[in-house]
Input
Amino acid sequence: MAGVDQSKIRNFCIIAHIDHGKSTLADRIIEKTGLLTEREMQSQVLDNMDLERERGITIKSQAVRIVYQAKDGEEYIFNLIDTPGHVDFNYEVSRSLAACDGAILVVDAAQGIEAQTLANVYLALDHDLDVFPVINKIDLPSAEPDRVKNEIEDVIGIEAQDAPLISAKMGLNIEEVLEKIVEKIPAPAGDAQAPLQALIFDSVYDSYKGVIVFCRIKEGSVKKGTKIRMMATGAVEEVVEVGYFGAGQFLPCDELSAGMVGYITASIKNVKDTRVGDTITDDENPCAEPLPGYKKVNPMVYCGVYPADGSKYQDLRDALDKLQLNDASLQFEPETSVALGFGFRCGFLGLLHLEIIQERLEREYNLDLVTTAPGVVYKVHKTNGEMMDLTNPSNLPDPSEIEYMEEPMVKAEIMVTTDFIGPIMDLCQERRGQYQGMEYMETTRALLKYHLPLNEIIYDFFDALKSRSRGYASFDYEMLGYERSDLVKLDILVNKEEVDALSFIVFEGSAYERGRKMCEKLKEEIPRQLFEIPIQAAIGSKIIARETVKAMRKDVLAKCYGGDISRKRKLLEKQKEGKKRMRQVGNVEIPQKAFMSVLKLDDK
Amino acid sequence: MKKDLGLYLHIPFCIQKCGYCDFLSASGTGEEKEAYVQALEKEIRSYGDFAKGYRVSTVFVGGGTPSCLEAPQTERIFQAVRDTFDIERMPEISMEMNPGTVTPEKLQTYKNCGINRLSMGLQSVRDSNLKLLGRIHTYEAFLESYHLAREAGFQNINVDLISSLPGQTEASWREELETTAELSPEHISVYQLILEEGTPFYEKYAGHPELLPDEETSRAIYEVTAEVLAAYGFRQYEISNYAKEGRECRHNLKYWERGDYLGLGLGAASMVRNIRMSNTGDMKTYLEKCGEPKTMRTDVQFLEEPQQMEEFMFLGLRKTRGISKKEFRRVFGRDIELVYEKALEKLLSNGMLLEKKDRLYLSKEGVLLSNAVLSEFLFD
Output
């Protein structure tokens, strides 16, 4: 790598709304630069987790280094840095962007700009990236490239008339994009002789190499043997290897210098020491200041995670430990529940992050899980002047000790076609949204701005948004801070016994409605048993809703078996097996999925 | 002293398979039946050594339709049984019989063979139901067979009925029961219709529960059965069995009380000295290996103590009189209260189980919910 002309490097990312074709374009770029044969191409090279591929989203930012022979006869090094597309990972997006010098904005020729497109473009512009647009999916019959070009110019305010019109899927006009990268994206600045200053934009744990840090060298250079220091965490290690990213593999090299994107390994055992956003410097010749913008990300959403089979507690702990090695934003600590036994209270960046972790635990570690309703972090101000962060509803102090409570708020932007403004405003209203304004994008679309309590959107807001707009609304949010609010703890009693794992904090004004829906939902989920089971919702000692699961009426097998007892046994065993998937609360068996089904309560 | 033993003999032939039936049976040609009878004789006779340790108190010939064999074939089978096994002086020897296959000659043969109990598959007194079930006989034909049997001197007759048929109501069922009870058989078995996978009934009804009696009707049908039959002098002694005083089926009680029984014939199940096993269900294999039963057994399972305890409970509690705690202690050397502490506490407190002196038995509600109740006695 030594001797690479800095002026021939292009560090960029692709930003797009989900489904607008980011990963497909990345595939095409990699393909066209000829680094891989077609046979080597997995369908989507950058998304190498199964889960990501199935969901069509990219979770962990990754990078790939490719070589492009441009029309000017020169050879260029492209570092394509992939960014997660979801709001949960906003901070990671922001760090990935900070590693780039420019960005390709992909917009769907039929759908135009979406809320997430806007959010990401603004984020890119905030990082002073040069952004050029690409109109994708022009092969679609419904494509309207001219309309979309105008929209980009009107709404975002960047030049779009010469935007390449491409179809990443069909491989149409990809060369044009490659030439634009050379032309529009600036070569990196930075002095290879200055003290080392490198930005960590990602890290992964490898059981052989330890933590592999993904970084962009802003100033100076780093090679094997350099003693590096993480400026925020203070960890100091000696570099074992540096290199760059081949397609799906690590390719060692001698040195990484200013302008380059690559990886560093230094037998670091803990991902927590290599926080995304931190600055790496040379311990012996440190830079004066870290790169701006580092912040520690705190979990926004908490929930209880329990093994369905109590004996798998240790397995769950091991799995969480391993996942945390790769994902410093995942937090967990042990907790116990009367209903669910031993488990962990886990903190996540958002609901998607929660779902991803849960699925990874189930798929990669083969664990059956029961999760409790996710909640946000409330600030409880006590009468004695103390303030506590409440992550588990069970820990809420007695009401007499509470002066007041605060809940986190978000600033949300919802892009919606004008036909659905009404229903979406209704939805925001129901979720206690504070209307902040509306902007018309064109005559048919509008951007709605609301302040919403985070706890109103972590359940099923996204689903509700989609269903009430027939899929046309898109949504993005950022944290706004805390606001005082009238909150109560809602308890659920099954057969007169409180089920701790079902308790949650709710806005007082919504408590009755939520309680009623919870009871209805649980009535559907809890199978009939030998006796009648009342299901009640209560605030303190006051019952606010009730449903009843009627008793089972007949379950008898008057069958002639002859002497074939094994069939009889099988029947009983099947029955018994069904019970094993249940949690015993008092005398009642509650199916594990009941603990999770209460998350989806929107019935419109 | 010789141990007590029951014998079950399986005759896997029917004139026509009924729409609900999932038992091991098929129609057979004359040659096939003959080949089978020869094989069965051979199998019976192969147990000579084993038989020395036992005295047989009950024999049950089931099927299929045992009465579709020719009279001499039945005679040969019983000859083999008598030649091989020591049979007690007052045994219970039952034979299943399909109305429509009965002749005075066959009945006489049965008498001569020592058969003293007939079990007749009536299933329903309504011809429309019989047609639906795919039975080969009418109610009229049943009556004829029943009276023939009485005339031949059979004083212990069971009648099988099937309840919860499509379209059945509590009232229509009550009528069926009364009609049957008025005939005054000694024993009535009532099985509810169960949709077994692979049967035509399953295909027809599994996707259409609305065509079958709903849960409340089905519950009422079950409850009214004991009530109506009691008025005619039948006492319920097991989940699906009702008998006049002293006429309980001794052979079936062996199943619930975990007595030893040996199954002979195709697919027949045995339990001997806490080993459960079945003969092969494959006719070709059976015909080949009938002389050496050891080589054609499937599902051989030695019951460990926990499994024995489970069976003790889930079989014993099917009986109306339930189980004896002392008996449990005598068999297993441990107190039932210690072994089943949680289950007993739960089921006694929610009223599914009742306790009277030494006995534990299902309450009325417990019987109606017996699957859920009995499954509590399986260990984790």
Chain A has five domains: 6-184, 197-282, 301-371, 379-485, 488-597. DSSP finds 14 helices and 33 strands in chain A.
